[in-house]
Amino acid sequence: MPQPTHLLILPMKAIYFEEYGSAEVLRYGEQPTPTPKANQILVRVRASSVNPVDWKIRQGDLKLITGYKFPKIPGRDVAGEVAAVGDNVTRFRVGDRVYGMPNDGAGNANAEYALLAESVAAFIPERLSFEEAGAVPLGALTALQGLHDYGQILSGDRVLINGASGGVGTFAVQIAKALGAGEVTGVCGPANVELVRSLGADRVLNHHEHDFTHDVSRYDLIFDAAGKSSFTACQEVLRRNGRYVTTTPDPAAVVLDKFASVFSTKSSYVFMAKERGTDLALLSAWLQAETIRPVIAKTFPLSATADAHRFSEAGGVAGKIVLTV
What we know:
This protein is of the alpha/beta class. The protein contains eleven helices and 15 strands. Strands 3, 4, 5, 6, 7, 14 and 15 form a seven-stranded mixed β-sheet that branches. A six-stranded parallel β-sheet has the order 10-9-8-11-12-13, with helices on both faces. Strands 1-2 form a two-stranded antiparallel sheet. Helix 5 crosses helix 6. It starts with a helix and ends with a strand. 49% of the residues are buried. Residues 1-6 have low confidence and may be disordered.
C-alpha cells in the first residue's frame, strides 16, 4: 500500500537533547520525521514511556554506547498505529495497532512518529489501550528475558524479585508466576506492599524492615530488577546452583561478582533486554488472557517529558511512567 508522502516530509514534534546533562537539556520541538527502510514500519505514536535507562542515557551514563551524535530522541517504548510500511513488510498494514521496542540503542520513541523493524513489532492486544500498551515493551521484555533466558527459571523454583514494584519488577512478579515459579517473593518499599501482593507475590518483604540478603529463606533465582544489590551480597541466600540476574548493576560490583562466581556453584548474569518480536508475541498472549497486566504509575503529555524524567529520578515509582502523544 502506498505510504502517505506528507508524513515523510512534514517535521514531527519530538523530545530531544543536544548535549548530555540534567532534565533541563530536554527540548520539545520539531525534528525530521523518519522514513521507513524496506523492513521497517513507521508508527504514529500514541503512547510511549519513561524508563530509568532514558534519563541515564540523557545524563551521559551510557555515552560509551550511545556516542556523541546529536540530537538524540529518548524513549524505548512505542505504541500506536502504522502510518507507513517499507517495501518488504508483509505482516503489517497502515492503520494496524502495533507496539514494540525500537532496535536503536538511543531510543527515538518519545516523538509523534517512530520506526520499528517488522521483526520486533507486535499487534497490540485488543483489550489494551494505547497507554497500557505503551507501558509494556521494555519492562516486560526485560522481565521475561531476565527470568527465562538468563535466570533459567524452572517449574517450582523459589524466586525473589528485588524492586518488585518498579517498571520491570511489576512484570517480573507476574511473569515468574506465569512461568511456573513455586513461590515468588517480592521486595519493595512499604507503600507498595499491597500492590506487589495483588500481582501474585506469595511473600512480600518491606525493604525498610527486612534485608533479604539475611533472610532465612533460600532461593533458586534472584532477579534484582532494582540493581540495588549484588551477587556477592546474595550468595548466602541462593541455593546450590542458584542464579543471580540483574540489569542495572554498579560497575565495581560486576567485577567482584564475576570473580566470586568463578569459585561458586552459583551463577551471576548481567544483561540488557533485546528487541524480540517472538517474545513480545508471547507477552501479548498473556496480556490478552489477563495472565499479566501493566501497572501505570503516572501519565504525562509528551511535552512534559522533562517532568516525567524528574519524577522517575526521584525514585519510588510504582509501575511505569507513560507519555501520551
